[in-house]
Amino acid sequence: MKAILVMFDSLDRHFLPPYGNESLGVIAPNFERLAQRTVTFDNCYISSMPCMPARRELHTGRYNFLHRSWGPLEPFDDSMPEILKNNGVYTHLVSDHQHYWEDGGATYHTRYSSWECVRGQEGDPWKGEVKDPNIPEVVSAHPGKSWRQDWVNRKYLRRDDEMPQVQTFNLGLEFIATNREQDNWFLQIETFDPHEPFYTQQNYKDLYPHDYLGPHFDWPPYAPVKETREQVEHLRYQYAALVSMCDTQLGKVLDRMDEYDLWKDTLLIVTTDHGFMLGEHDWWAKGMHPFYNEIARKPLFIWDPRCKKQGERRSGLTQIIDLPPTLLEYFGVPIPKDMQGIALKDAIAEDVPHHTAGLFGEHGKFVYCTDGRYVYMRAPNAENKPLFEYTLMPTHMRQMFDVKDFETVELAEPFSFTKAARVMKIRSVERPLRDPLNVGTVLFDLETDPKQEHPIHDPVVETKMIDHMVRLMRENDAPPEQFTRLGLTLIGAFGTRRKEIAMTQPSIF
Question: Cα(11)–Cα(168) distance, rounded to whole angstroms?
Fold first, then answer.
């Protein structure tokens, strides 16, 4: 048996034909072809944001964001690729996602049997040039080294075959061709695209002709929309062009599935980590809160050669934490008890629900709960305290924790998933909660308000969603201060763990 996971970054389902293609009429025939050959999931949600927290969940099958922020795999983590590797399944990663090669992601790629990296995406510190690059007039510049480095990198990415995404897929296709006659392997093809900046070649931009004479604009800020209507439209076309490029590369994988008749014995999963705001709710990107469905609800397509279901839709709630147990179950490998996700075998075969609700969020921000119809967005208290990081791997995205962070470090008692290991309890660096619209705690009914424009006021539904949230937090063995920060008081000692939850925050009504 074989399995292929194709993972994109920041792929907005609203730009895909199988999900209505509500934005700009994006040209993506291979995503349509994919939907015809697979089961399409309509209620797949993110779990932890953003990039590496989602990858940790792709390995561990459990929520990351209640215990720590962006960081590596921990020594006590169950890693799906490593478990497969240790059980006779060859695992291979090809990726241009530069965060794997930084301090905050440095333990992920080494869990695979083998791996290959492609350089040059975004601000990847790749090509060394002391002289500053020539940067054209732009709508919005970005502070920091990544902005400068990206313009250096672009000088070396001027043909289609030089683009990191193309090289990544070519390496994946090489692995498939080399090993198509072999059994028991898992291939993960992961590209950073269509993550910003929306840089691609002219042939893809030509698919979306439009009048635009303004400054260069293919990298939106993480900020409210202040640009003109023409600039907003132009950026959306830039994103659409990059999605079309992703579609072309996806088509090559489908071609190999056809050519080598891999549909008979190869599980295929195509998904992303999260979506992206492209002007909706008057915001760009994903750093703001609350997380609307443009960010939170994401595409998921699965072909399972055992049931051979294709061209069908599934409405059951799913999350990225379900993918590790799905792959383990497929290869007949026992699922560790600490994984919270559920293998999707039955959900693929029949539209049967298996999650009554799911959590999602980002460390130290809102906590969200959905049951597939309602989305409950719970804001923390005004001080956003108390808040701690629990880790044995104290690194952030691109740097270690500061030495000062350890001045008051404590050793916390083991959590249920740390394999009896005590972990460092480190006070989180104070940072403002980005809720600039002062939305606060809100509840949406997606059945009547799919664009989340009109919060509802229903105490019965709110109580039900709070009950789901509390139950799932307890199942995740969330630290007690998370309940306090959200206005949910934990009754019972930390050491005896999670006895009762009493709601103390006033209702939103």
Answer: 17
- pLDDT digit string (tens) for 392-436? 999 999 999 999 999 989 999 999 999 999 999 999 976 656 555
Q: Within 10 A of 383 (CB to CB), how many other CB atoms are there?
A: 10
Q: Which residue has the tokens 């995740």?
A: 476
Q: How far apart are CA 468 and CA 471, in angstroms?
A: 5
- Let me know: does 81 contact 112? Beta carbons within 8 Å: yes
C-alpha to C-alpha distance for 179 and 182, rounded to whole angstroms: 5
Q: pTM for this structure?
A: 0.94
Q: 299 preceded by cis ω (within 30°)? A: no
C-beta of residue 307 within 8 angstroms of C-beta of residue 39: no
Distance CA 169, CA 160 (A): 12
Identify whether 506 is preceded by a cis peptide bond (ω within 30 of 0): no
In contact, 371 and 333? CB cutoff 8 Å: no
Asked if 127 and 204 touch (Cβ cutoff 8 Å), the reply is no
Orientation angle between helical segments 229-259 and 29-37, nearest 10 degrees: 50
Q: Is the model more confident about 141 or about 259? A: 259
Nearest to 31 by CA among 13, 46, 45, 43: 13
Which helix (H) or strand (E) segment is 473 a member of?
Answer: helix 459-475
Segment holding 390, helix H or strand E: strand 388-391
For residue 176, report the phi and psi dihedrals to the nearest 5 degrees: -60, -45
The token pair that represents 411 in the structure block: 């050793």
Contacts of 180 (CB under 8 A, 6+ apart): 256, 260, 262
- What digits encode the pLDDT tens for the residues 205-236? 999 999 999 999 999 999 999 999 999 999 99
Provide the β-strand partners of residue 189: 6, 94
Residue carrying the six token digits 């740097």: 399
**Cβ atoms of 37 and 253 closer than 8 Å:** no
DSSP 216: B
Tell the residue number behind the tokens 């910003």, with chain if given: 196
Nearest to 243 by CA among 506, 492, 30: 30
426-463: per-residue pLDDT in tens? 999 766 565 555 678 999 999 999 999 999 999 999 99
Distance of alpha carbon 239 from alpha carbon 386, whole angstroms: 39
CA nearest 191: which of 61, 431, 353, 9?
A: 9
HSE-up of 80 (CA within 13 Å, CB side)? 34
- Cα-based angle 246, 210, 216 (whole degrees, multiple of 5): 75
**Per this entry, what is the length of the chain?**
509
* CA pair distance 365, 380, nearest whole angstrom: 7
CA angle (427 as vertex; 74, 146 as ends), nearest 5 = 70
Token pair recorded at residue 492: 């019972």
Three-class DSSP category at 117: strand
Q: Which residues of 386-415 are buried (b: 16+ CB within 10 A; e: fewer)?
A: ebbbbbebbbbebeebeeebeeeeeebeeb
